[in-house]
Amino acid sequence: MATNAATQPAALPGPRPGKNMAWVPGGTFQMGSDDFYPEEAPARSVVVAGFWMDEHPVTVAEFRRFVRATGYVTLAERRVSPNLYPAVDPRLRQPGSLVFHMTPGPVDLSDYRSWWSFVPDASWRRPEGPGSSAHGRERHPVTHVAYEDAQAYATWAGKRLPTEAEWEYAARGGLDGAIYAWGDEFSPNGYVMANTWQGHFPWQNAQTGYDSTSPVIRYPPNGYGLYDMTGNVWEWTSDLFAFQPSTRDAKASCAPYRWGIHLPQQRTGEAPTDGDAGREGGANRPAVRVIKGGSYLCSPTYCLRYRPAARQGLPADSAACHLGFRCVVGPQSLR
To answer: What CATH number does residue 165 fall under?
Structure first.
């Protein structure tokens, strides 16, 4: 049963460290779930120290200011070294990223290649590839950012990426044990609470107004005043992923790897980590990081991961049209 620990606003510990940041008071909560995907189990008690968190995912406008100030070039905009990726088709060793395209009808959901493709020159500037533009999407979450891109922005902004425990605790908004960030009912009173896929994935979406990302702050905030903790874009965390999904579970993956190549995960049989305690990637093997929150592509007919407890692992060099991030300021979670 969900309990609400955020009915009264917590006193702020001091001045706000940055514009559009919300205070998340520390506490203890039940992290994970025993009721959905196996990588979320076991549910366990975790203590989190208080921290400040961006109210919404980093937007295109915010990321553009970072790039203009630093000249930073994202991973998706760089040519790929054959020494680092000898198994990659030479035709794909060029700047680009993964882009979703709706199918004309039902397809085999075990083959994500039906709706994902590596598109040359797709990046945060050109979300759908050549001919597209991020102009007009300034208030949308920035996408096509790899882990190191998110880290670079966070460092420039004087912030850091959240741990998985911090992210999940914040997403719950004080509703400990609730299925969703707003309670146990997906659409209370028929009201759409987040930008998720509504219909038959990947060919029929009944969501009103958005077939891709939506502007931030278009859906209600949770109990801590945080927006888009569910849906819109997956978000990077700083934790390593330490669970090997089975073939059955991998079929319901919303997070494709770069070029569609499934690189090795962490050691089989390990429990989820609540901190940066997994194993880093070795030679020719990027570390696999935890992403949280689901995206506009999450659907109950395919991938029911628009929940605080949901998690997936993604190699740190991956970038896609449904992947973004937000930052935090403050002490890391206690474990």
So the answer is: 3.90.1580.10
Tell me the HSE value of 10 on the side-chain side, using a 13 A CA sphere.
Answer: 19
Instruction: Write the CB contacts of 191 (distance below 8 Å, at least 6 apart in sequence).
Output: none
pLDDT digit string, tens, across residues 282-313: 445 678 999 999 999 998 888 899 999 999 99
- With 0-12 CB in 10 A as exposed, 13-18 as middle and 19+ as buried, what is 180? buried
Is the Cβ–Cβ distance between 293 and 229 less than 8 Å? yes
Share of the chain above pLDDT 70, in %: 82
The model's pLDDT over 157-166, given as tens digits with 9 standing for 90+, comes to 999 999 999 9
Q: For residue 322, what are the CA distances in angstroms to 123, 185, 318?
A: 12, 24, 11
* Six token digits for residue 162: 């959240």
How many folded domains does the chain comprise? 1
Those residues with Cβ within 8 angstroms of residue 335's Cβ, 6 or more apart along the chain or in another chain: 46, 47, 165, 274, 275
Residues of the domain holding 333 = 1-335
Q: Is the dihedral of CA 146, 147, 152, 155 positive or negative?
A: positive
pLDDT higher than threshold 80 for residue 31: yes
